[in-house]
Design brief:
Elements: H1 2-10, H2 15-18, H3 27-44, H4 59-67, H5 74-79, H6 108-119, H7 137-152, H8 176-187, E1 214-217, E2 229-237, E3 246-254, E4 261-269, H9 274-282, E5 289-290, E6 302-306, E7 313-314, E8 319-323, E9 328-336, E10 348-354, E11 359-366, H10 369-375, E12 385-391, H11 393-397, E13 401-409, E14 414-422, E15 428-434, E16 445-453, E17 458-465, E18 474-475, E19 478-479, E20 497-504
Parallel strand pairs: 8-11
Antiparallel strand pairs: 1-10, 2-5, 2-9, 3-7, 3-8, 3-10, 4-6, 4-9, 11-20, 12-17, 13-16, 13-20, 14-15, 14-17, 18-19
Helix pairs in contact: 3-4, 6-8
The structure holds heme C.
Length: 505
């Protein structure tokens, strides 16, 4: 079952798969999906589940009943008198509800609209990256039931970090209360309620990019050359008007074609690295050159990353990444398109820039040097290969460090990863843990309280890979056979990288 799980998440989902949800889904398709998810939920979320799965209109009810250790029905009783106003599906949640609870019942306008707008709407809008819209009552009703497995399994909204590891800013995942509320609405038959009682909008998870000083765009529009996935790097010269060191204090991505751009990573290359990238660009026809895990060149400095739904973000107060005159930004764009006929893309990044900052921030890429020299073997067929590395980077640079954000980077075989601090006093602090690695959703995760790192403290990085036959990525529509894999930039190579934004104090 675990393999099946990883298989679902480790492959960047081609849009063809999600397309199922565009039109009317066949009931049998839904049942099959829910069955496979249901079995998984029973084993992971609810060891004490005793309800049989009911394949009637009450699929979601059966899952809810299984998904909680408390007796089914308590949930509903907590938040409202759940008079079963819907299609009277079953009694799983409504059995203890009374008929007089209409005023307190969960409705679209009052409860669900604010939730869907704030936690789904940035991606699930007409023409957006997600395969269907969740805006407006009709869309919510059309796609609410088929969203149940993703909501219960917490794969939607996409939020990779394990929240027990550390608290991160900008957390868009649903709380258990919000999940219960959504489920209750579904169970009640998705009542609309009264638009006059529309609930107040929910707070956005982050303030976003507060000012745009510079927009840098791809040199020309690009049409995908492979589907469903095309990874392309574009050179964005640093503007010549900047003749002195500048500091980037905020970053936002602006995809040109919302339907095909799946993620954007901006790397910073110094003036003397630029020539290498120019050669890579010149060697291929059309704008840019193909690249996968990184830039195909020496730079590992992430200036910023964008994934769907991300409106951009300021760096923590007083912090900036230095950019010298003559630098180049390498924009890596992951396109996910159904066919080669997709509209061309012209993406940009927006930057907030200052002449000076209180503290210069460094992007610290963290990996074992031995891995790059061939020491990171992932043998064919192995379902769980682990590579780990520890180093005292504060000791190495001879000073105190502060860590503001961190990210993990693996490729398609990656299954889970963890970045932590082993303190000199023997204690351990978790920085970032991703239990179900998905290449398609890599992000950078900031801390409300930055982490201190003193000489003697070690950064510990751990990556797990599933190289079994069931977890092989689809490349150009074909599922590969397991093969021995090692460190490299290609789609079928792997990496294990921690990336931290830090200052030296
Ligand atoms: C950050 C963008 C984003 C947010 C926020 C988001 N989705 Fe999605 N969603 C996607 C994308 C993109 C897909 C297409 C599949 C993929 O690429 O993973 C998708 C696919 C889905 C699917 C199809 C099945 C699946 O899991 O792939 C469902 C159902 C879904 N979303 C429901 C929701 C619900 C409900 C919410 C809010 C509670 C939500 N999504 C929030 C981007 C988002």
């Amino acid at each position: 079952m675990d393999n099946g799980h990883h298989r679902l998440r480790a492959i960047p989902p081609p849009r063809g798969h999600a397309r199922v949800y565009h039109g009317q889904f066949a009931v049998s398709e839904l049942v099959r999906t829910v069955l496979s998810y249901g079995v998984m939920l029973r084993s992971t979320r609810a060891p004490s589940c005793s309800l049989p799965l009911l394949f009637t209109g009450a699929i979601s009810l059966a899952l809810v009943g299984c998904g909680d250790d408390e007796p089914a029905g308590d949930d509903a009783a907590d938040s409202a008198d759940s008079g079963a106003t819907g299609d009277g599906t079953t009694a799983a949640t409504g059995s203890d509800g009374s008929d007089d609870g209409v005023a307190a019942e969960v409705t679209y306008w009052q409860d669900v609209k604010p939730l869907l707008d704030a936690r789904c709407g940035s991606c699930h809008l007409p023409g957006g990256i997600a395969p269907f819209s969740l805006q407006g009552y009709e869309d919510a009703v059309a796609f609410g039931p088929s969203s149940v497995p993703s909501v219960l399994e917490k794969t939607m909204p996409p939020w990779q970090p394990n929240d027990d590891c550390a608290t991160h800013v900008g957390n868009i995942s649903l709380t258990d209360e919000q999940i219960d509320l959504f489920m209750e609405w579904i169970d009640l038959g998705m009542p609309e309620g009264d638009p006059a009682n529309e609930g107040a909008p929910m707070e956005p998870p982050s303030a976003g990019l507060t000012r745009i000083d510079q927009t840098l765009s791809m040199p020309e529009a690009y049409s995908v050359q492979s589907a469903p996935d095309d990874y392309r790097c574009f050179l964005l010269p640093w503007p010549e008007e900047y003749t002195t060191t500048k500091y980037v204090t905020g970053f936002g991505g602006d995809p040109g074609n919302d339907k095909t751009v799946h993620h954007i990573i901006a790397f910073l290359a110094s003036a003397d690295e630029t020539e290498t990238y120019q050669q890579l660009d010149d060697a291929e026809e059309g704008p840019g050159y193909s690249c996968f895990g990184g830039t195909g060149g020496p730079s590992r400095t992430w200036l910023g990353a964008w994934a769907p739904g991300g409106g951009g973000e300021d760096l923590p107060d007083g912090l900036g990444v230095a950019v010298e005159p003559g630098s180049t930004i390498i924009l890596q764009v992951h396109y996910n398109a159904l066919s080669l006929d997709a509209e061309p893309d012209l993406s940009s990044i927006n930057l907030k820039i200052e002449d000076s900052v209180d503290k210069v921030a460094f992007v610290v890429p963290f990996a074992s040097p031995a891995w790059l020299a061939g020491g990171m073997q992932i043998p064919a067929g192995e379902p769980d290969v682990m590579h780990e590395f520890s180093a005292d980077i504060a000791g190495f640079v001879g000073g105190e460090l502060t860590i503001y954000s961190s990210a993990l980077h693996m490729h398609l075989l990656g299954s889970s990863g963890r970045l932590s601090i082993d303190r000199a006093d023997g204690s351990q602090e978790c920085l970032l843990q991703i239990d179900d690695w998905d290449f398609a959703w890599q992000g950078t995760y900031g801390y409300p309280q930055p982490q201190r790192l003193s000489p003697g403290d070690e950064i510990h990085l751990e990556c797990h890979y599933d190289n079994s036959p069931g977890n092989q990525p689809y490349i150009d529509g074909e599922r590969g056979e397991p093969r021995d894999v090692g460190w490299g930039e290609g789609t079928t190579d792997e990496m294990c990288l921690g990336v931290m934004l830090a200052t030296l104090d």
